[in-house]
Amino acid sequence: MMITRRPLLMGAAAAGLMAGNAYAQSAADFMGEWHGALDLGSQRLRLRLVITEGPAATLYSVDQGNSAIPVGTTAINGGELALTIPVINGSYRGRLNGGRIEGQFTQGGTLPLVFTREEVGAAAAPDALTQQRLAAMRAEAGAPAFAAAARNRDGRSINFVDGLRAVGRTEQVTTNDKWHIGSITKSMTSTLVARCAEAGAVSWNDTVGSVLGSAIPDMRAEYRDVTFRHLLSHRAGLVSNLEWAEILSFQRENPDPRQERIQYARLGLTRDPAGAKEQHFEYSNTGYVIAGAMLEQKLGATWEALIRQHVFDPLGMTSAGFGAPGTPGANDQPVGHGPGIQAVADGNRAGAVTPFPPGGALSDNIAALGPAGRVHLTAADMLKFLDAHRDRTSLLRRESWDTLHTPPFGGPYAMGLAQRNGALWHNGSNTLWYAEVLIDPSRGVSAFAATNDGRAEAMGRPIGAALVGAAQAVA
Known about the structure:
alpha+beta, Lipocalin, six-stranded antiparallel sheet, five-stranded antiparallel sheet, 13 helices, 27% helix, globular
């Protein structure tokens, strides 16, 4: 299974648009300015849509610096509007109804989105999370288990869990259990690069060609001058993922995946670019595997050993590990869940979930994807990592924290973390788990929420709400 979850609207860029070629007599009804909001659970993102003659459209993310998101094509057919938004791999389809455009926004998952002529106000302050609220949210979502934890720099903290380690069994989750964090691992890989750069073992400006050129002599010329900065901010022009058939050739578990990471990197680096370097945002697991391979090539150790030595151990993250948590057959940790194979074949991804325990053929991503999303850990250890970023501790120098938290090529995505209203956020899923993190230095808050249910489209809103509620509880 692939890590497919990406941050919604995190590819927003402050540049132009391209007009489509569809037009209809009712197009005048769509002209002008519209307002709507996406409910992401962890945040309500206000949007402003401006439609002009052509037709052409510009979409603005009000809560992300009011940045313009380039619209690729704008099509109006009778009372229907269709937008394609390539920069974030998104689209919108809506129908004019009673002075409103009612439709759905798609970017990985699909969410309802209604536009009206009236401006949308800022979201009300969320309710503080309690144990009872978390239990109710989990039950309503139909997930096996939820976890939510948060801590303020003044010491106030919560750590709540509710539910079962696996459906069909009786073991309850505990506050000491481990949760798979998927693509949140990317922020850890970026932190590892910063640590190694401070030690002089690598440079932020090391290029793929100079480090991996001898191992991958046939890489495309477009990638030879790509640096760690490009890879970690998804601005290298690389494709998001390899093809499924290629993924199947790699091992699920591998005690030393260095050679497989080189093989994975070669498949990505010999493929046509998804877009222009620096200008195009393409959320790419491939880029993080390549960054991991570069670290391994320069330091002579596996990414797993390096991140333990330079990130986990200094922060006291003793529970952190790789792959599906737990001992095969022991039911000693939460188990990831997803739609059963037959349900997927039938297109019923929203139905009941099936446990995929550790040791099975489909318990996690392949080992080569470690730098992109294969870490598990307890909520307490997750907060240790988030607190270090929130407080900019002595783990790194100030300049390194600035590098990690600042988008190097514009937009809101930095190095494994996305900017949101002065805070930093990310989510992650390996299709069997889903998690989100929030770092809010202005309020002194770090927060984490997770579930052992990988249906990201269904879990995004309740886990996001748990995340924001947890942060509110300690703010």
